[in-house]
């Protein structure tokens, strides 16, 4: 009995010891989970507070993605859609809302609703937007009258959100995306991380990549961080992939807002030239000891490089102290965990600011400076707004200046013609293209085709609608000979 009792005692003491250890583990686990929960709740609390500053944007307008309206701008296809936006903190201004440009492009009527005012809607005006969608940013505003009505009906004061300036999120940083996906009447909060970065180019701006759920209707809403600031705009999602969304960085949003409110013209500083990857095989030619920095392949007239005295085959080493490797990628702390390139750096310099550039020429290091300026006007534009699309209807055909959306639409019409268009994309001057032909007209009888690229009129080079109109409007012009890049000609009577 005693032995049994002792064994029982030992067993009890053993159990007590195990229970003690287990209890400590459970306590630690509980504290850990509480800590984790606290961290998560902190970001969730921040997002919930900021949620009241996010609005739903209701738009009535013309649908530009339809092939018919792209190829024949005279056609208007009405439609309605929705997106998201948020009240922006900017100096002492009130009633301004940031959203994506593609949300309010081609809008005829814009209205805003908020969780603060139930389902009440308020008319808004488009202050301005980036027409080429790079970056995809727009600014709208409630009139003083509508803002006063909003404040009167709101259950509490407007939550104005603040952009994060100067620093970008780090890879793996936790964020919350806020918006009105799929037409929901209340704002939705989805969680995720910054998973990657996409560098910009001469024509595009940088994007953050996230695994937070971004769906149609989220566009224009904010992605927010633990510091209570907006890191960027929810902009797009990759259709054929899982959990890959794209955010327009707050730094670019800030520049666009500044430009719209101060100059009413959104633009960025550009290099003003073509750049080329460096390599060791150029060492002898460029008199460089190693391939560091990027080669200037071309200097465009009227651009920054020309103003700084940079020449073809110079090698750009740094801009404002930021050094670049042979690919044009930032060297140092800023570029250690991401590929931020020379175009990203240049675009974040305000127009008019003095820019210091260090470059290699004939084996010697040189320094120069010039004011940051916008890129010289390019020949090919991207997605002009429908109401601003220039076209000429003559000889039974629609003639437009070539743009990327026309090239994209040509895929459904004639892929061979599309390839021909793509070969012209780097030309300095615009290109005229036939985008529609009416049956039974002069162009139809001469068997002209959609996609023809017009190069001359009466043996004179033509690149723009204005140049062609000037030739057609000459008093002595009763017939006109049009020649296309393909060799096709047409002899038309001017009516």
Tags for this entry?
seven-stranded antiparallel sheet; globular; six-stranded antiparallel beta barrel; 3 domains; Pdz3 Domain; 25 strands; Thrombin, subunit H; 12 helices; single chain
Can you put this structure into words, describing what you see?
By secondary structure, the protein is α+β, with helices and mostly antiparallel strands. It folds into 3 domains: 53-268, Beta Barrel (Thrombin, subunit H), CATH 2.40.10.120; 273-371, PDZ domain (Pdz3 Domain), CATH 2.30.42; 390-493, PDZ domain (Pdz3 Domain, Roll), CATH 2.30.42. The chain has helices at 2-51, 67-71, 101-104, 144-153, 250-262, 283-286, 304-307, 342-347, 404-409, 415-422, 442-445, 465-472, and strands spanning 54-62, 78-87, 96-99, 107-114, 122-129, 138-142, 174-179, 188-198, 207-210, 222-224, 230-237, 245-249, 273-276, 294-299, 315-319, 322-323, 354-361, 364-371, 391-394, 397-401, 432-437, 453-457, 460-461, 479-484, 489-493. The strands form 4 sheets. Strands 19, 20, 21, 22, 23, 24 and 25 form a 7-stranded antiparallel beta sheet that branches. Strands 1-2-3-6-5-4 form a 6-stranded antiparallel barrel. The protein has a 6-stranded antiparallel barrel with strand order 7-8-9-12-11-10. A hairpin with a 2-residue loop joins strand 19 and strand 20 (397-401).
């Amino acid at each position: 009995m005693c032995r049994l009792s002792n064994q029982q005692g030992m067993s009890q003491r053993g159990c007590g010891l195990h229970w003690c250890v287990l209890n400590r583990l459970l306590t630690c686990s509980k504290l850990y989970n509480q800590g984790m929960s606290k961290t998560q709740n902190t970001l969730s609390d921040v997002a919930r507070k900021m949620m009241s500053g996010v609005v739903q944007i209701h738009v009535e307008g013309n649908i530009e993605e339809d092939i018919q309206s792209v190829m024949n701008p005279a056609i208007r296809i009405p439609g309605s859609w929705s997106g998201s936006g948020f009240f922006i903190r900017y100096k002492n201004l009130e009633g301004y809302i940031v959203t994506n440009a593609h949300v309010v492009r081609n809008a005829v009527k814009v209205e805003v609703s908020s969780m603060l005012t139930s389902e009440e809607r308020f008319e808004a005006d488009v202050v301005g937007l980036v027409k080429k969608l790079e970056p995809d940013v727009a600014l709208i505003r409630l009139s003083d009258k509508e803002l006063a009505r909003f404040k009167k009906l709101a259950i509490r004061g407007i939550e104005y959100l603040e952009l994060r300036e100067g620093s970008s999120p780090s890879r793996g940083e936790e964020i919350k995306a806020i918006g009105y996906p799929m037409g929901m009447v209340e704002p939705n909060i989805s969680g995720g991380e910054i998973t990657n970065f996409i560098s910009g180019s001469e024509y595009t701006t940088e994007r953050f990549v996230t695994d937070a759920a971004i769906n149609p209707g989220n566009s224009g809403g904010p992605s927010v961080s633990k510091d209570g600031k907006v890191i960027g705009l929810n902009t797009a999602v990759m259709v054929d992939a899982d959990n890959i969304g794209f955010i327009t960085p707050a730094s670019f949003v800030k520049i666009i807002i500044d430009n719209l409110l101060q100059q009413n013209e959104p633009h960025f500083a550009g290099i003003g030239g073509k750049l080329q990857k460096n390599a060791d095989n150029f060492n002898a030619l460029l008199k460089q000891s190693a391939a560091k920095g990027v080669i200037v392949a071309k200097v465009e007239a009227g651009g920054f490089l020309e103003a700084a005295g940079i020449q073809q085959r110079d090698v750009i080493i740094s801009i404002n102290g930021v050094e670049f490797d042979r690919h044009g990628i930032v060297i140092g702390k800023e570029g250690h965990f991401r590929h931020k390139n020379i175009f990203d750096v240049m675009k974040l310099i305000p127009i008019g600011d003095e820019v210091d550039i260090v470059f290699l020429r004939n084996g010697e290091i040189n320094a120069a400076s010039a004011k940051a300026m916008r890129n010289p006007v390019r020949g090919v534009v991207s997605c002009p707004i429908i109401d601003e699309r220039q076209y000429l209807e003559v000889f039974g055909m629609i003639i437009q200046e070539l743009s990327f959306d026309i090239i994209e639409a040509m895929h459904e019409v004639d892929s061979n013609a599309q390839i021909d268009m793509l070969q012209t994309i780097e030309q300095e001057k615009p290109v005229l293209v036939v985008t529609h032909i009416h049956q039974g007209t002069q162009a139809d009888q001469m068997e002209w085709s959609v996609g023809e690229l017009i190069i001359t009129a009466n043996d004179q080079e033509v690149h723009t609608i204005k140049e062609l109109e000037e030739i057609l409007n000459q008093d002595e012009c009763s017939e006109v000979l049009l020649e296309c890049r393909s060799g096709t000609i047409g002899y038309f009577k001017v009516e």
